[in-house]
Design a protein that fits this description.
The protein is α/β, with parallel strands linked by helices and 235 residues long. The protein is 34% helix and 26% strand. Pfam families: ABC_tran.
């Protein structure tokens, strides 16, 4: 990929749900470029389109019009299977609700993406252990989610998101269910993944304190980009 080519580029992106009088125009011509290694916070009120954009970038949804380029490749023209492969090999997800399987251990939860990719058992077990070490949970691999605090569960979710070595980490309100101290710990971890491991981070948040960790803040209002600014992140 040419250094000047954005990792992610959205051009005139529209998303319309429903038809006729019941239709809802969620995105109204979004233009947005994100380069490899950036840490971008996406903010905006409920219904502003920020989650819709995240779903399209994560290949969980498709635009109604416009272009989505990933490393210069047009994603909107890909088949469902091709989008699934892109998602599986290049994108990691972290959600507000953790989304862990309740009856499986931390290690088994982290292994899941590698099972979908067909990795041998020994290989995926070693990779899952390494990911848990990276998030500071190397002594908790045999614990189930019920035996972990909220912060620990989110660390497991982050380990699961990075175990495949993704280019992009999509984080949707990653601190929404956590207290202030634990939120700061999780944001420090995400920042370290961005700075030390070069993972591009795109994070939806409604909390200004969390957005300050990002180098760039994009604000959505009524399906459009209202502002896009760079700022020094929190230390």
């Amino acid at each position: 990929m040419n250094e000047s080519t954005p990792l992610i580029r959205l051009i005139g992106l529209h998303k319309i749900y429903g038809r006729g009088g019941a239709s809802y125009h969620a995105l109204k011509g979004i233009d947005l470029s994100i380069h490899e290694g950036e840490f971008v916070a996406v903010m905006g009120p409920s219904g502003s389109g920020k989650s819709t954009v995240m779903n399209i970038i994560g290949c969980l949804d498709t635009p109604s019009d416009g272009q989505y380029l990933f490393r210069g490749m047009p994603v909107e023209t890909m088949s469902r299977d091709q989008r699934a492969l892109l998602r599986r090999h290049f994108i990691g997800f972290v959600f507000q609700g953790f989304n862990l399987l309740p009856r499986t251990t931390a290690l088994e939860n982290v292994e899941l993406p590698l099972i979908y990719r067909g990795h041998p058992a020994a290989e995926r077990r070693a990779a899952a252990r390494a990911a848990l070490r990276r998030v500071g949970l190397d002594n908790w691999e045999h614990h189930t989610p019920a035996e972990l605090s909220g912060g620990q569960q989110q660390r497991v979710a982050i380990a699961r998101a990075i175990v495949t070595g993704p280019k992009v980490l999509l984080a949707d309100e990653p601190t929404g269910n956590l207290d202030t101290r634990t939120s700061a710990e999780i944001m420090d971890l995400i920042t370290a993944l961005n700075r030390e491991h070069g993972i591009t981070v795109l994070m939806v948040t409604h909390e200004p304190e969390m957005a300050r960790y990002a180098r760039r803040i994009v604000r959505f209002v009524d399906g459009r980009v209202e502002s896009d600014r760079y700022a020094e992140p929190a230390s």
